[in-house]
Structures are given as structure tokens and as C-alpha cells.
Amino acid sequence: MARNHDEYIHHLFGNEDEALQSVNESIRKNGMPAISVKPEVGRFLSLLVSIAKPRNIMEIGALGGYSGIMLASALDKEGSLTSLELEEAYANVAKDNLNRAGLGDKVKYVIGPALQNMDSLHSAGQQYDFFFIDADKINYPNYFQAALKLATPGAVIVADNTLQGDNVFDENVTTAHVTAIREFNEQVATDERVEAMLLPLCDGLTICRVKP
After folding, report:
1. I need a labelling partner for 85 at 20 to 30 A (CA). Which of 30, 130, 158, 187 fits?
2. What is the 3-state secondary structure (H, E, C) of 138-198?
3. Residue 30 pLDDT > 90, yes or no?
4. 0.85 exceeded by pTM
């Protein structure tokens, strides 16, 4: 029996199909960090994509492709996913996993520092209507500002791990990554260009919509 709301949600919505189980196995085999989104977060991302019906999604942080599968699988036929990943080896694993899931034709990987690549994409006139941020926490405030430059009116921006084990509301915790996430949440909450909310799902999901 579930003892708290996290266990209850996981029990109901945390099931994984064969493709997602394969991603976790590939991450272990390649010695990559086991920091993919939780299954219930992945399911929520798919639900958001199904509701928002974006044409162009940007994912910041590919890792092994777990979130990529959840995002791409909910896209309409003409939709596409651009996945930014610092490590080429990680992107290769993610690409293999998306191909095995039958979603390889929906995703393009851009290798290198995400902020630099976001700036290049902005200069090239690219725009996106859905963003998922799940990369180095130090740069969350910077990713938010860069996403706003690339966002279409009404675009949705989602960021994972925004409670940091509940450390964001403990003023005694001043580590760099917690401080950065705290700053990010405050930015999103007070920026008049967006409407936003933080959900206590797993380690926290901050969600905002760019006002038209």
C-alpha cells in the first residue's frame, strides 16, 4: 500500500513500456548517470504535448532519450523535436533509443553547449512552441531567458527538478545549484511575460505559458 502521495502517484501512473525500460538499460550499460525523468513526469509531459499540440519542441538535455520518447511520441504527424545535448556520446545513445522506439524521424540532435546553440538558433530565426528544460541546474535562469527569445506566443516552458529535494525553500541551503533553481523559480513566478505554476510532482515541475 502506498504510504505517501508520491508512492500513490507512482503506483497509478509510473508504469513503463518496453521502449522506456530499454532506455534505462542502455543508460546503465553505457555508464551514464541514472537521472532520467521519472515515469510519471514523462507521462505528464506527454499529456501536456497532447493538449498543447506544439509543432516544434526544444528539449534541453537529452541524456539517454527517456524524455525524448515521451515528448516525441505525443507529437502530431508533422511535429518535430530538437534535442540539445552537451555530450555527443549521450546524444548517440538517445538517438539509438528514439530509433528503436520508431521515433527517430521526429528528432534532431544539436551537440554542444545549450546556451550557445540556443543563441545560434535564435540568430537563424528558429522558433519553438514547447520547451523542456532538464540539464545543468546552474543555468536554469539562463535557459529560461534564452527560451523566451525562441518562444512563439503561447509557448509552454517546463522545467524538471525545481524543488531540489525540498531544498529550495530552506534558506540554510545555499549550494550553487539550489540557489540557481531558487532564482529560476522566482524569475518564472514574477516575469510578467508568462503565467506560471510550480507542481510538487516528484522533484518539482515548474510550468509556464508565454502570454500571447
Report:
1. 187
2. HHHHHHHHHHHHHEEEEEEEEEECCCCCCHHHCCCCCCHHHHHHHHHHHHHHHCCCEEEEE
3. no
4. yes
